[in-house]
Amino acid sequence: MTTSRDPRYVGYRFPAEVIATAVWLHFRFPLSLRMVEEMLAARGTTVSHETVRKWALKFGREIADRLRRRAPRRGDKWHLDEVVLTIAGKKHYLWQAVDRDGFVLDVLVQSRRDAKAAKRLLRKLLKKQGRAPRVLVTDKLKSYAAAKRTIMPGVEHRQHKGINNRAVNSHQPTRRRERQMKRFKPPQQVQRFLSIHDPIANLFHLRHDHRPASDYRAACAQAFTTWAEVAGTPLAA
């Protein structure tokens, strides 16, 4: 028997509201799967952390894809940065792009930090954004300049470590999750997790500064309304 009218949840023993809440908790906050299991138990729902993991992979991907299709066009000033991730004792690099407002445009986990890797990121960004930026902001890594000359030669490029704090700070959620998960395992896991995490984080990227409390509450309510629509059910109370 199903407890949801949404066809995505047909055949699942738990109500759609429980599944959507588990997915939201896992990707919205730096919580381990066992922490999500415990939080659901506190609400009277007994479910294993392995079940939460399977829900996160299946429904998280579908929700992220829907959010990505509904997302508004982002700013035309792109901030790019890369950070080292140690995975199974080997160095990898998490390349990330955000716009001027801090919304994540895309991420790419690669084993190299050269011009070829930078070109791959720029091509991926152009394909997803459907346009070139007005301004590209990076640190002084020479790979960015080499890639930009080939992929988007007409774009203004500003290279300075001090003006790229927005991109540098955008890595903080990944670092917090990395610590919670006691380091990421294969590179594919990082890419898969962040491709789901970032659209959800973008939806709830609500800045408190320079806005009245009433405006913030309205924006928050709208974010939850959008979540309810893409998840096929409102969050559990």
UniProtKB/TrEMBL annotation:
Residue stretches of biased makeup (Basic residues):
173-185
Protein's UniProt name: IS6 family transposase
UniProt GO molecular function: DNA binding
The DDE domain is annotated at: 76-204
Phylogenetic lineage: Bacteria, Pseudomonadati, Pseudomonadota, Alphaproteobacteria, Rhodospirillales
State the source organism's domain of life.
Bacteria
Record's PANTHER family? BLL1675 PROTEIN
Q: Where is this region: Disordered?
A: 168-187
Q: Which InterPro entries match?
A: DDE_dom, IS_Transposase, Transpos_IS6
Pfam family of the protein (one)? DDE_Tnp_IS240
Gene Ontology biological process terms, A to Z: DNA recombination; transposition
UniProt keyword list: DNA recombination, DNA-binding, Plasmid, Transposition
